[in-house]
Every structure is written in structure tokens, then in C-alpha cells.
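Late entry, written up from scratch paper. The run itself happened at the end of the previous shift, but nothing got recorded in the book at the time, so transcribing now.
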Amino acid sequence: MAKYCLLAVDIDGTLMNSNHEVSQRTIDAVRRVTETGALVALCTGRSTFCAELVEKTLGLDLHIVSYNGAHIVAPRNFDRKVVFINPVPEHHITTIIDYANENRHYLNYYDNELVHVKPLSDEHNALVQRYQAQTAAVFNYVEDYANIPNKKPCKIVVMTTDTKTVTEQLKVMFADQLQIIRGEFFVECLAPDVHKGAGLQKLSAYLQIPSENIVAFGDGWNDIEFLQFAGMGMAMANGYKETKAAAKKVTRFDNNKDGVAHEIEQMLLEGLFGPATS
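Output as recorded:
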């Protein structure tokens, strides 16, 4: 077995630059990894639908760990088989909606390829536009979250510029009943024990690739467990300090200077990628 048989990579702030683009150099580097026989997985907080848009940019057929580990699917060649799914428990949905209404926050309520929203102000509309520019999500405007038919969303996100306060409040409210993950301008609510690290662990077991044969790249708070699980967890130079502290290595360059591509190219030169079977 090669040193690394699985490349697991985050999208925003990692694979993509600050303009939400994947450079040609990065595309070429990731494709070269697949040419060695190693597998590649996109691991993201995005929905599966939005991750597939990036997959299309890469021109590859990949495993996708989405919604921060709540949903895992196989490549298109395997009919997008659902490997794992763990939605937000239905009995907590009303509580999240009530919290948002009482505090005049708006939610991103994920429903397959749609994100249901109910912005209440110009500030909320600005956040909708910011999120859409970053992820290319497709929004559906609703009058009442409670009337959304799908009661099994993989995640619900509280959109806010005060992520610290909202994170603290939600953690007190739900304790260990939900996984609460802080983002740059949003706070994610997921089923308990859902995070990228657990998602990567499930993909590792499904593919029968040990953690020591996985290299992972990430930049955010939601990447900490993800990088800790991988045999080689690399934090981006532009990553949060907590993420860098959890990683085994920090990339030499940031996401605007092809940080992922530089590291992959060096590992390819050293012959570190290859198939899981010898």
C-alpha cells in the first residue's frame, strides 16, 4: 500500500481561493493524484449539491463528505450511493426555529439542492448574497420555516455576524444534543457527534483505508477533528490558529497562492500517492 491512498480536501478557504475559484494549477495537481490510483474526496460543510459544482470544476468523479460529515456519497460511477446520512433530529428543529425568531436571526434550512431562507432585514439579505457568492447555493424564500415539508435536514444554519455569542448560546441550549459548529458568518446545527472528522472516519472504514494512509487539507474550525483523524493533517497557511495547532503540518502557502497544489506536487515528486491495493 502506498503512503497515502486517500486525499481528503476541504473546499472553501482551502481548495478555493478568496475569489471562490479553483486555480488551474490546483485542478491539475488533484487530477494527478487520481492518476496514481489514489482516491480523492471533497470534505465540506457545503451541501452535496454545492460540492458537486466543485467536483464538476475539477472534472473528476469523487466521493463527497458534505454537511460537515452528516452526508456521505459515493462517486457518480457508483450511482451516488448514500454511504451515510445523519439528519438533524426532528424534535430539535422547532427549538432552532424558535431561537432564530426570538433573536431575529435568519436560518439556512437545507433541503437537498435547495436552501430555504427567510431574511428579515437588509443585513440578512447581505448575508444571503454573501453565502450565495461563496457557495453558489440555490435559495428558496419562505414565509414560515415550520411549513417546510422536509423534516430531516442534514443541517440548519443560523446566519449571524456575531458567531461567538450565538455559538455560546446554542451550546448552552443543546449541550450534547446537537453538534454546534462555528463558522465565519454562521453557526451550524447538526446531529450530535456529526463533524468532518467523524465523516472522514466513516469514509475511511467504508473504503478500508486506514487513517495513516490519508492526507487531509483544511483551514476552518470545522476542520480540526478532520485534520486530527488523518495520518497527515495539513492546515492552510490562512487557517485559524486553532486549526493550525491541531494539524501535523501547515502549508507553506495560503489558498490564494496555490497552497494545496504546492504540497501535493511535492508529495507526488516523492511518490507518496498510490492505490490502496499493492
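The longest strand covers residues 106-111.
(Scratch paper discarded after transcription.)
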